[in-house]
Every structure is written in C-alpha cells, then in structure tokens.
C-alpha cells in the first residue's frame, strides 16, 4: 500500500518536472524568437523609427515578464511577497524615469 | 550562564571594562542593539539640540552677532541633518529592535549579524559627519544640499555630508531589509497579518518605504560624490548637466523619508492609546488600510517640495491633488484614535500624555500641510518661517512626541525599571508648552515675511517679540530634555522594578514575558489566538500565553566583532575620499580610501568563509531562568 502511494507521488512529481521542463523550453524558444524579431526590426530598412522603438521596448517588457514568471518562479505558489515587492519597486523606478523624461524642468 | 562548546566566538566571562566593551561591540542581540541605537541616537539628539539652541540664541534679538554668516549656515545644516538622519532614525530603530521581535513572538530578528552591521554603519556615519566640525568646517548647504551650491561652491564640509550620509544610509537600508524579512517570516504560530499589533504594521510599511526610498538617496549622493571629487558634471549646467535633477532625486527620497519618520510614531500612539484606554484599538483594519495608503501615496507627492521651481501648472496640479489626498488616510487615523479614547478607562501617565498631546499637535501640523499643498498659496509660504513651523509641528509635535511616548511606555520592558512618573510629567509639560511657544508663533513670523535660513533680521520689522517668545520656548524644551536625562539616571539607580506586564494592562505579546526579557525572549513560542493576543489570554483567566511548543533547547546566534570592523573600514575609506579633495594629499588619501575598501571586502570574505553554527541554550537552563523570573 505504502509503496503504491509513493510510486504514485513519484509519478506525479515526474510529470510535474516534465511540464516544468516544457515550460522552460517553450519560453526559451519564445525569447529567442523575440530577440530575433527585435534584431530584425532594427536591421530591416523601411520600418518607421517610432514603430521600431515602440516594438522593441514592448518585446523587452514581455521578455522580462517571461524571465520573472518562468525562470525566476514568480508563477509558483507562495511567491506573493516577492511579486508584490518587485512590482512596487518597478513602479517607483518607473515614476522616477517618467519624471526625468517629462518634468525635470519646464514642461 | 554557560554556553555550548561550539561557540568559540563567545567571549569568556571575565569581568572588567574591556570584556564589557567587547560585549557591546560584538553583540548581535536585538535587545542590546536597541539600547545601542537609543544611546547612539540620544548622543546625536543632544548635539542637534545644542545646535538648535545656538540658532535660537542668535535669533532671539534683532541684528544679533552671536552666530553669523557661514557659521550659522553650518549650524542649521548640521541641525537638520543630525536631527533627521542621526537622531530620529536611530530612535525609531531603537524601538523597532526593542519591540518588534517581542510583539510578533520571535526569538530574534531574521539577520542578527546584519542588524548589528546596520547599527555600526549608522553610528560611524554620524561620527564621520560630526568630525567635519574639527576637520575644516561643517557642511553648510542646508540639509537638502541643493546643487550646484553643494556640488561646486561650498568647501570640504559637503564631502563629510555626502560620505557620512552614504555610510549611515547603508546602515538604515540594511536595518529595514532585516525587519521586512523578520516580520514576513518570523511571526509566531497564529500571528496572521491582520493580527499584527499596529506598531508592527507601521514598522513594516516604514521598512518598505526605506527599501524603495533610500536607493534614490544613495544614487543622488553618488552623483554628487563624483561631481565633487572626480570632476563629473551631473549637476553642472555649463557642461551639459542639470542641477534640478538633484532636487528631484533628493525629494523622491526625501518625501517618503518624512513618512518613514512619522509612521512608526503613528504605531506607537496606536499602542499607547489602546493600552491606557483599556480598549481594543478602534477600527483596526481601517488603520492598517490607512497606513498602507499613506505608504503608497508617499511616492506620488515629492514635487510639492518643488512647486516654485517652475515645473509648470499641470505637474504642480497633479502633485497638489495627490498631496491633499494624503489628508484622507491621516484623518482616518486621527478619528480612530479619538474613538479609541472615547468611553475608555483612561490612565493619564506620561506615555499617554505624550500620546494624547500628539493628536491636536499633529492635526495642526497636518492642517498647515494641506495649506502648503495648494501651489498658488505655496508661492507665498515658500521658504518662509511658515514652512519651518509646519515641519517642526509634524516632526517634533508628531514624531518626537510619539517617540517619547514610546520611550516612557516601553522603558520598563527594555531596562526592567520604570521611569519616574513625577519627573515624567514635569518633562511632558515643559516639553509640550515649550514646543508650542517655540513653533506656534513661527507661523505668524512666516506670514509676516520672515525668510527661512537667514541669520538675522532688522529692528522695526515687527519680528522682535515673536522671535523672543520662540527662543524662550526653545529653552523650555531644552530644560525638558535635561529633566528626561535626570529621569533616566534616577531610573537606573532608584527606579521602581518593573513586572513582566509592567502597566498591568498590556495587550500585546511583549508584556507576556519578563522585563527585561531573557536572552531568548520566549521560553516557548506562544500560540496567538487573536488581535491583542496577551489581553485575550488574560480575559480567559490565564496569566501567560498558551505555548505552541514544548520547552526545548534554544538556538542562538553567536556574537561577532565583524560588523564593527566592517563599519570601521568604511569609515577609513570615507575619510580617505574626503581628504582626496585636498590637492596636496590626493594620491595618499585615495590610497587610504582604497585600503579601507579592501579591508571591507576582507571582512566580508572572513564572514563568508568562517562557519558560524551559533550555540544552544539548554532546556535545563531555560527552565532555571524562567523560575528565577516568575
């Protein structure tokens, strides 16, 4: 009985690890594609500059989120505090940067 | 007290001055660090107070020549800097260290070593700053140190400001991270977030604010450091820099700093008023919500310090509205305190007098705050004594009243002896009357047009009488502090011994253990069953907490001299950098600075390599100690 139970848990853990690995691989692949896309938009002539800068910054943000959630485990349970603190810190940093690009002097 | 064989770093128990000194230099016990913070901060509080007296003596009569020009600028700069960074902050950390682990039912803080390092960095930072008096003149750019005045036009004093605050600020940041982790991870079983005592809640939010605000100061100080010592041009308009950036960075740090100061005072007041009204705190969850909201808004309002800089009407309006919004959560708190007092069985001892005196005084500071938040009106008030009156009402009338209330309240828990109540009441009334005499009339001086930071004023401008009254009030406050010192000395010699539940109506966990607490705080980790955990147990007819574990061996961290050595090495590095501004000695001074940095990293290496298993206090010893107490 006991052995059967432990076998089941082992099987579940194995499946979980497998799924985890899949997540890693998929997000890794996506990141490479994003990077190629970003490079591509910069390299190809004829794409408007505004679009390029907007596009690559968006990709960068998406990549950071992938990093945080899939590679640094923010998606897992019991990561509420790290998530809260990371985003609060990001908010403060964002406001600071926003100030320096908008209202440092006369606007 | 015997220790485990593992504890090689424990000093041998031989008596004498040096072993006493060693014990305090190497301690990692949060209760001892609290006392270090208290007396370290007290030292700087006295220095800052003497500077305040010098200012008031100079301004007592028109055209006085007691302290003029550059010297006056040095004294006001050092008064502001000392009081904020070297007196108020360590006082807050003293209460945090003394109370937080006890309130959450923990045996220690999360990182005892970092805790000790935080204290020694603060203390050495203060020493660096005050060494400037003897080494070529103190900083004279105001506590805000606006560029380019501070980066280009003032002498060596500013280097002491930059490096002293850098070292002290690093200590504060470490202390805050330590308390964040402590409160998140080390709560006793059953102590959920919505059961935390309000002082712990406010300290938690304060620590969050420190975590996010102090990096801005660190960055700003680094920029000004490079401008001054390595000819960078961050704040130099002529070479493409922008001096307004300093103002933004300083106030992005500086405004949260104001809430870092006041929130713990709110916490203290909440504890004291609830205890001495013999009632549960009114509106606990709204108090928690208001605290979080104040913490959030703290980062959205810094431009109200810069309304007259000329950022344009839209920026000014946005920040004005955000600033006025802060009156809402603060108002929630004020009403909750009044409703806690309402119908309570109130005891007016010194702690509660300070707490009750806090409420109207702080409201006055808040009202002038909302007045200053209106940009159009602020153009009139800006840089006048009205502003001086406002921030002394919130910082002295708010923070210092709160801290003194906390000292009288927790003194028996920290030292095992009560402060004398008669002396305490003399202290309170002198301080309260002196405070209002000093600062109430400064509102009118400001409205009449007396500018801030000027060292004199002329006869016949109508400033004479109010300035004289203000100086008299300052002397009353000075005497009040002397009475408090006498009270501390009296308490140490003849003070009434305190019981565990010193006020006999303690509500929170710290009152369920002996005063002063044993080294391990709780013989058995308590089981928390609700808000005001200890009060709940007493209402169930018990005299101590229900235990959450059997009595067992208790693991303790071993003491270490490394935090002290690390702080010394950063002091050496700072002094090296400071003297590198002198042309003749630039190379040797930079060499000394480098040596200090290397020494610092060697200390880190030593700490990382050496295994530190701590030691155990055995079960039998714990039982023996607990018998002696009860």
TrEMBL record, chain A:
It comes from the Bacteria. Pfam families: COX4_pro. The chain crosses the membrane at residues 21-44, 50-72, 84-106. The keyword ATP-binding does not apply. One of its GO terms (biological process) is electron transport coupled proton transport. It is a multi-pass membrane protein. InterPro entries: Cyt_c_oxidase_su4_bacillaceae, Cyt_c_oxidase_su4_prok, Cytochrome_c_oxidase_bac_sub4. GO terms for molecular function: cytochrome bo3 ubiquinol oxidase activity; proton transmembrane transporter activity. Keywords: Cell membrane, Membrane, Transmembrane, Transmembrane helix. One of its GO terms (cellular component) is plasma membrane. It is found in: Cell membrane. Signal peptide: none annotated. The keyword Transmembrane helix applies. Belongs to the cytochrome c oxidase bacterial subunit 4 family. PANTHER family: CYTOCHROME BO(3) UBIQUINOL OXIDASE SUBUNIT 4. This is Cytochrome c oxidase subunit 4. The lineage of its organism: Bacteria, Bacillati, Bacillota, Bacilli, Bacillales.
From TrEMBL, chain B:
Its EC number is 7.1.1.9. It is found in: Cell membrane. Keywords: Cell membrane, Copper, Electron transport, Heme, Iron, Membrane, Metal-binding, Respiratory chain, Translocase, Transmembrane, Transmembrane helix, Transport. PROSITE patterns: COX1 (PS50855), COX1_CUB (PS00077). Pathway: Energy metabolism; oxidative phosphorylation. It is an enzyme of class 7 (translocase). The chain crosses the membrane at residues 34-55, 75-96, 117-140, 160-186, 198-226, 249-269, 281-303, 315-339, 351-374, 386-411, 423-445, 465-490, 561-582, 588-609. GO terms for molecular function: cytochrome-c oxidase activity; heme binding; metal ion binding. This is Cytochrome c oxidase subunit 1. It comes from Scopulibacillus darangshiensis.
């Amino acid at each position: 009985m006991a052995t059967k139970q432990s076998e089941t848990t082992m099987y579940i853990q194995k499946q979980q690890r497998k799924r985890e690995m899949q997540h890693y691989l998929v997000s890794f692949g996506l990141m490479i594609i994003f990077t190629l896309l970003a490079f591509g938009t910069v390299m190809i002539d004829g794409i408007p500059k505004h679009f390029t800068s907007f596009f690559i910054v968006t990709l960068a943000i998406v990549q950071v989120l992938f990093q945080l959630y899939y590679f640094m485990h923010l998606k897992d349970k019991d990561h509420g505090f790290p998530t809260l603190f990371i985003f609060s810190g990001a908010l403060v940093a964002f406001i600071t940067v926003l100030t320096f690009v908008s209202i440092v002097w006369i606007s | 007290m015997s220790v485990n064989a593992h504890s090689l770093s424990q000093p041998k128990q031989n008596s004498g001055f040096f072993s006493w000194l060693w014990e305090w230099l190497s301690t990692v016990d949060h209760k001892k660090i609290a006392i270090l913070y208290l007396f370290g901060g007290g030292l700087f509080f006295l220095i800052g107070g003497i500077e305040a007296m010098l200012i008031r003596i100079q301004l007592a009569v028109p055209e006085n020549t007691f302290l003029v020009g550059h010297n006056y600028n040095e004294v006001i700069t050092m008064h502001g800097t000392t009081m904020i960074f070297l007196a108020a902050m360590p006082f807050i950390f003293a209460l945090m260290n003394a109370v937080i682990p006890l309130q959450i039912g923990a045996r220690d803080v999360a990182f005892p070593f970092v805790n000790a390092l935080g204290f020694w960095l603060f203390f050495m930072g203060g020493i660096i700053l005050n060494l400037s008096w003897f080494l070529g003149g103190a900083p004279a750019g105001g506590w805000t140190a606006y560029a380019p005045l501070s980066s280009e036009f003032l002498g060596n004093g500013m280097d002491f400001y930059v490096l002293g605050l850098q070292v002290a600020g690093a200590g504060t940041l470490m202390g805050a991270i330590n308390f964040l982790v402590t409160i998140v991870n080390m709560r006793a079983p059953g102590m959920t977030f919505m059961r935390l005592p309000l002082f712990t809640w406010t300290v938690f939010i304060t620590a969050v604010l420190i975590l996010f605000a102090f990096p801005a100061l660190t960055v700003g100080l680094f920029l000004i450091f490079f401008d001054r010592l390595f000819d960078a041009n961050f704040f130099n308009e002529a070479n493409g820099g922008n001096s307004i950036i300093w103002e933004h960075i300083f106030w992005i740090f500086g405004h949260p700093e104001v809430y870092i100061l006041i929130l713990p005072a709110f916490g203290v007041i909440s504890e004291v008023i609830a205890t001495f009204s013999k009632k549960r705190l009114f509106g606990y969850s709204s108090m928690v919500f208001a605290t979080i909201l104040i913490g959030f808004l703290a980062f959205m309002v810094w431009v109200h310090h810069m309304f007259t800089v000329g950022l344009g009407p839209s920026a000014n309006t946005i920040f004005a509205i955000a600033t006025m919004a802060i009156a809402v959560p603060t108002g929630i708190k004020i009403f909750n305190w009044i409703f806690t007092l309402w119908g309570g069985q109130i005891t007016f001892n010194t702690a509660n007098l300070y707490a009750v005196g806090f409420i109207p005084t702080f409201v006055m500071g808040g009202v002038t705050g909302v007045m200053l938040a209106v940009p159009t009106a602020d153009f009139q008030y800006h840089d006048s004594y009205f502003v001086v009156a406002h921030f002394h009402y919130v910082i002295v009338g708010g923070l210092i009243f709160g801290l003194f209330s906390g000292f009288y309240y927790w003194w028996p828990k920290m030292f095992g002896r009560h402060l004398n109540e008669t002396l305490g009441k003399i202290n309170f009334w002198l301080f309260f009357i002196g405070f209002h005499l000093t600062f109430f009339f400064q509102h009118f001086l400001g409205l009449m047009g007396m500018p801030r930071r000027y060292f004199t004023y002329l006869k016949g401008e109508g400033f004479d009488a109010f300035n004289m009254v203000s100086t008299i009030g300052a002397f009353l406050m000075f005497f009040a502090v002397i009475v408090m010192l006498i009270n501390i000395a009296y308490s140490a010699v003849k003070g009434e011994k305190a019981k565990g539940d010193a006020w006999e109506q303690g509500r929170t966990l710290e009152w369920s253990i002996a005063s002063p607490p044993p080294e391990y705080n709780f013989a058995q980790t308590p089981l928390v069953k609700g808000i005001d955990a200890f009060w709940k147990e007493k209402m169930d007819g018990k005299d101590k907490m229900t235990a959450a574990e059997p009595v067992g061996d208790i693991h303790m961290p071993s003491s270490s001299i490394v935090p002290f050595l690390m702080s010394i090495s950063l002091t050496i590095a700072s002094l090296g950098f400071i003297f590198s501004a002198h042309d003749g000695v630039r190379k040797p001074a930079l060499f000394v600075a480098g040596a200090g940095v290397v020494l610092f990293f060697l200390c880190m290496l030593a700490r990382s390599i050496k295994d530190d298993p701590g030691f155990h206090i055995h079960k039998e010893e714990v039982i023996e100690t607990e018998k002696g107490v009860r």
